[in-house]
Amino acid sequence: MNNRNNDTEVKPDVIAGRNPVSEAIRSGRPIDKILVARGEKSGAVVGILAKAKDKGILVKEVDRTKLDYVSGNENHQGIVAFAAVREYSTVDDILAYAAEKDEPPFIVILDEIEDPHNLGAIIRTAECAGVHGVIIPKRRSVGLSYTVGKASAGAIEYMRVARVTNIAALIDDLKSKGVWVYGADMNGTDYQKCNFSGACAIVIGNEGKGISRLVREKCDVIVSLPMKGQINSLNASVAAGIIMYSAMKDR
């Protein structure tokens, strides 16, 4: 499949067609999600979706025009997969890496970040700030796509990124391991008054909605950034960067 320099350029993480998608799943290649044409019920596609379900891969039904667009009008046969540009780690991998470095865990949790440029920028800053790992949800979140990798400026090769089913349950688990959880949101404690020196996780919310109510309730502390202008919010990656570097200073 050739890349083309137009609005329908096919990125390297796009796999179109029944056989290519089936082989990608069979080979164990990490896949973020599969898009299937609405109402597609052919035997081959049903078999592919069954394999995807067994592996816990997210599947979404979309109009064929969407598949035409993302595949660059290639012959997608009603199914397109988006592969991750590198394998995901686990939360245990992240904690083990912190232990290996003899440092208290320093984690960034992203609650439904949808913009790949934001995720890439956060991964880039996290790598520079000494974060041990980034955790994202499996659903309603951008994954490790080609665009994310490009926006990370290579940091994606060094940063451990884990995906979990439930962010709230993850926070409970981290707290049971002695990790203090800080949620970034409005109407909290000024981040400059917080001490991030111990085992900590910083939660950054969705670009529009912020962190969800349940996730906010699970956090130990809500931290805020002072706002002096007319706009009352910062870009998610900028807010994450400011708090990560404040934590790096404390650590």
TrEMBL record:
InterPro entries: Alpha/beta_knot_MTases, Ribosomal_eL30-like_sf, rRNA_MeTrfase_TrmH, SpoU_MeTrfase, SpoU_subst-bd, tRNA_m1G_MTases_N. Residues 14-89 form the RNA 2-O ribose methyltransferase substrate binding domain. The keyword Methyltransferase applies. It comes from the Bacteria. Keywords: Methyltransferase, Transferase. Belongs to the class IV-like SAM-binding methyltransferase superfamily. RNA methyltransferase TrmH family. This is 23S rRNA (Guanosine(2251)-2'-O)-methyltransferase RlmB. It comes from Ruminococcus intestinalis.
